[in-house]
Amino acid sequence: MHQYARYFERYRQLAQTRPLVELAPHDILSQFRAELDAAAGHVAPGAKAEARWNEICVSRWTYESEIKRPYFHVTELDEGQLANWRKYLDFEEAEDSYSRTQFLYERCLVTCAHYDEFWQRYARWMSAQAGKEEEVRNIYQRASCLYVPIANPATRLQYAYFEEMSGRVSVAKEIHEAILINIPNHVETIVSLANMCRRHGGLDAAIDVYKTQLDSPQSDLSTKAALVAEWARLLWKIKGSPEEARQVFQKNQQYYLDSQPFWQNYLRFELDQPTSATAENTQYERIKQVIEDIRSKSALPSEIVRGLVQTYMVYLLERGTQDAAKEYMTLDREVHGPASVAHAKTGETVLPTPPQAANQPPSTENSIPPAPQTNDYNYYQQAPVNGGVEGAPTQE
Asked: Between vectors from CA 195 to CA 150 and to CA 138, what angle results, nearest 5°?
């Protein structure tokens, strides 16, 4: 505050030596004259302006005093600094002054040039102003081409959606392709590109995007597994052909035996199929076959297999037939039982535990922690009443 007062005092000293027409525009001078006339000579010239300026400074000093680094640096800002910029921007936007808010955003982005959230916030605020389409484009271009690291493509994807909204679909497509040049295995960008091609070119155009990426030598197996699942989702959700989607999963499972996203999406696909009392048995066989493939064919770690089997066990309880309890208990023993009987994957061999020497405590090295006790309906559990301890005996 002291610095602001010094600036104003110097301005007042300068103002006494210069003609009025150099110091303020005509409308401001007219306002001052009106204030003088209304005060009948009892208020010093510019007193109301000084009071207003002090009010502006005081209201912002809380945020200004917390700005520890007003310049750009490659090191990250701490959370307190980021929170202060967020609050300062909230305050200035609430004041509803376009020029002040824009100026504060520009100041903020000097310090926070590498942070997606402030570029996107600036673009969203600017897009809410009438007739500012070119300014929004300029914000996205500065962020995408100069400041935000290419490893963070979120702002570039927002830029692509903005250009698509503006009717420049070819530019939006080029933005997606530019991202994939630098990070070819970014699944979100590939899916976004496929969806954009579907919106403007139909389902076949989207499938062509997935096929191109699946044939690309730059795509690794984990990326291809996720894209196969997205391809099947398109056939199911957009084309309305679950059978074609199922064939995509079945034909490609041999290539992605160790991919968790592939098997998760395959299982979720079968679980989410609409069914009826007459078709439930058929759907049950399909879901059971997926689980058997996961346990016998996949190369997933046992922990992942255990989680997928647990999902199937919940299905048995919720949608199974009268024989579901028997299958459930068998799986419960094999998945969550002790090491002597548990084998999440079929075909696993349980190795006998070597005998311990006399008077030698059992070794804990490389021991396998016990499987957590499961409760398939734990999402229905409620907190103990009256601060009681869950599971503790109650007094009658």
From this structure: 45
Q: Which of 187, 198, 185, 281 is nearest to 235 (CA)?
A: 198
Quote the Cα angle for 12-17-18, to 5°: 95
Q: What is the model's pLDDT at position 366?
A: 46
| pLDDT at residue 372, as a whole number | 53
The span from the CA of 42 to the CA of 36, in Å, is 8
CA distance 341 to 351: 10
Say how far apart CA 335 and CA 353 lie, in whole Å.
19
Select from 179, 214, 213, 176 the least CA-distant residue to 192: 176
Determine the Cα–Cα distance for residues 117 and 114; give it in Å rounded to an integer. Answer: 9
Q: Which residue segment(s) compose the domain that 277 sits in?
A: 256-339
Residue 334 lies in a domain: yes
- Of 346, 246, 351, residue with least CA distance to 300: 346
Q: Which residue type, as a one-letter code, is found at position 23?
A: L
Instruction: Look at residue 29 and tell me if it is in a domain.
Output: no
- Whose structure tokens read 């419960």? 332
**Amino acid type, 20:** L
Q: Is 271 exposed, middle or buried (0-12, 13-18, 19+ CB in 10 A)?
A: middle
Rounded CA-CA distance 7/248 in Å is 71
> What is d(CA 384, CA 138) in angstroms, rounded to the nearest whole number?
56
Residue pair 314/376 in contact by the 8 Å Cβ criterion: yes
| Residue 322 forms part of a structural domain | yes
Predicted pLDDT at 22: 81
DSSP 209-220: HHHHHHH-TTS-
Half-sphere CA count of 47, side-chain side, radius 13 A = 9
Query: Residue with structure tokens 């210069």?
Result: 18
Rounded CA-CA distance 369/367 in Å is 6
pLDDT at 20: 78
What are 32's two structure tokens?
A: 């001052």
Chunked mean pLDDT (size 10), the chain, 396 residues: 68 82 82 73 58 73 87 91 95 93 95 95 96 96 92 94 96 96 94 96 95 92 92 94 94 92 94 88 93 92 92 92 91 88 66 49 48 52 48 48
Q: Are 186 and 151 in contact (CB under 8 A)?
A: no
In-domain check, residue 323: yes
How many structural domains compose the chain? 1
